[in-house]
Amino acid sequence: MVYMVYNCSMEINKPIILASGSPRRLEIMRKHGIEPLVIPADVEETVPENISPSEVPVYLAELKAEAVSVSCGLREGLIISADTIVYLGDLNGGGEIMGKPKDPEDGFRMLASLRNRHHYVITGVCLIDIASGRRHSFNEVTKVTFTDISDRELLEYLSTDEAYDKAGGYAIQGTFGKYVESFEGSYDNVVGFPWKRIKYEIDNFIKTGGLINEKIYD
What is the pTM for the complete model shown? Predict the structure, then answer.
């Protein structure tokens, strides 16, 4: 049984499912005392045309959560899914959504385009209560600015393994963090899992949907 406690007054005594294989998301949950069931979603990440950059990770998070709700075989529990993109351009559209680099050349192109300017990291999150089918989705946006990184520094970074399983080709929590000049918003969001916002949204989701068993602590 997995328990999650909020505001010293409520607990979830049902399984909590992380619909992601990301070690960084699992690490953040464990850091906050939660040991979820990890069930990565197997979905085709195809996005409809004409949706805004901010909607893209929400759409993908919903796909993942819905897939796991069907395949997990559980009758109750809370599914948490997330998807993160790096976006260069105006948030209204017309820019580039950056996924994981395919190779060093792709990684260099991405990081070179991001240096000495700002971009956005956008994480979409979807919550599903398996028993009732209730769903709640939202996104979190962080503005990140890089320093003017040299070609040599980029090539040295891309010779490591760190860049290749990260959207945009970098990890703020890794060795690339020294090239981040500033960020506006959630640090954990840039890692890929904005925990403070997720906790807040789960708390409201629980209060309004009867997912919890209430317990008043001494």
Answer: 0.87
